[in-house]
Amino acid sequence: MPRAILYDSTLCIGCRACEGACAERWGLPYNDKIANEETISAHKLTTIETHGDKFSRRLCMNCQQPACASVCPVGALQKTALGPVTYDASKCMGCRYCMQACPFQVPSYEWSSRLPRMRKCDMCFERQSQGKVTACADACPVGATKNGERAELIAEARQRIAEKPDQYYHKVYGLTEVGGTSVFYLSAVPFEQIGLRTNVPQEPLPMLTWRVLELLPDVVSTGSVLLGGIWWITNRRAEVARKEGKKK
Amino acid sequence: MTRRLPKITVWRVIFAAIMLSGLYATYLRAVYGLGGSTNLSDKFPWGLWIGFDVMCGVALAAGGFTLVATVHIFNLRKYHPVLRPAILTAFLGYILVAVGLMFDLGRPDRIWHPLIMWNPHSVMFEVAWCVILYTNVLFLEFIPIVFEKFGWHKPMAWVHKISVPLMILGVLLSTLHQSSLGTLFLIVPEKLYPLWYTPILPLLFYVSAIAVGLAMTIFESWHSSRAFGRALELPLLASLGRVLAVAMSVYLWIRFLDLFHRDAFALLTRNRTETWLFLLEMALLAVPTVLLYQARIRRSPGALYACAVMVVFGIVTNRLNVGITGIEAGSGTHYVPKWSEIAITLSLVAVGFAVFRVIGQYFPIFEGHATEHAPAELEETEEDQVTVG
Fold first, then answer.
1. ipTM here
2. Domain range enclosing A232
3. Is the pLDDT of residue A86 over 70?
4. Domains and their CATH numbers in chain B
5. Which residues contact B317 (CB under 8 A, 6 or more apart)?
6. How far is A141 from chain B (nearest CA, A)?
């Protein structure tokens, strides 16, 4: 059963415990200076964002049909059945197409490294495959970040809106965005007010390139016949002309 | 003649300056990584090295497949004299694209990974395979020139045997990856500005590649005639200019229909950088197209050359708009290439010019008239040959 994360902005107190737990899980440094950076980067794979008196969280959305995994020329990125989108740094050649393709601008690069890797949250794939919850959900003291079965979390998100309709904006972010994600957001205000992208397509992005790419066998086969045929006709014509020329 | 010596020296000084800056930039790239040598960031992962070195490099090398198809598949033998320069340009172009990628890839030591690690759903994977295979095809299309130079008839006969399937393969591979460079950007509908983002990007990239391939052929013929003091194949280039006018018209018409059907013309009323860059691109593409319809322009070496240059710059502007400037607003950032990025790019271009010149001097690149076909076959003479320079 696929897993997911539900982040409820109305519950979040901005304590940044998720940031610290995430840094620890990846073996990354974490201190006050890094805590104050409100952007994700190669050394900070999740962050709490402050939007006035509201908080929001940024992390990899682990899309249902991830653009990053579809564009990776070496298959370093994979969508697992469990939900997380994993990254195999030993395959990556650093073309950075995943970064260009990601509609949420999540993948980060180790720009100053001589042997750079892409970095992103993988929804604690290892922990989750061992039946544990993600480090961030484990660390959250107020249950703003919850990790569980995808279907159950969707039901729970809807239930929270239904139970307290005046406290929530009546939508769950992540259900339809780019065809669905593994991270869902609940908010008191429209999502763009807590920094979420509402201009992303509602269809899975990989379809956009696959529609063209799947024509490849047709182009190759039709093209070979066409070009071969044209060559046959035009060179036959030249041959005939040459022979007729000789007769004269 | 006294005027020519200092001129060459000036070019050599410029060349040396570019190469020195390129060497220093290479040092920065090797020691300090992409962070120390580029202005790329998490929000803007592709810059000049992809936008120019790869996207423009591949497009400007399109003359190779265009002329192979024209001469050998459509059997229009009169264009044979410009075939070899076109193949050489393409071969050098693709090698330079590969060199450019060695700078841009975070792990250039793994450039071979797509050969054994497959992801058929990735456009980049397809481009990688096509470019690798096509570079090999270009090598085989170029190698007869070397065989001819040294009089090696046996290997020549061997290459000749596989030449037809080889050429068809080359045209197919080019069709695939020229268009696929456009497909690359179909995945960023929310980033690429709508003046450029369209589902038919692959078609536009393909048609414009054919056009700019023709323009490059005129461009390099003109330059080589000056560099080597040989006669310009003007009647030939003039009729190539006619084909270029048609190719450009087809391209511009598709662009118009695309903008029209997507209701994108309204965007032109916005006073934004993108609007002006789009208008610049359109001017660079439309002006030479209109001019090339006039026989007077096609017959004048200087005017024909100017038109070819405008088309080249127009397509370069297009590729940069799609690959860089059209992505900036959607990425929420501003990107200006670092000097070292520009230095590497200029070095690659300079190396391209220099190697072309050296090979043109020592190998039978410009002796097309003498081989296979009598000059009598050049029946379509728009006017007499003119010597330039």
1. 0.92
2. 215-247
3. yes
4. 19-32+45-366 (1.20.1630.10)
5. B277, B280, B281, B284
6. 31
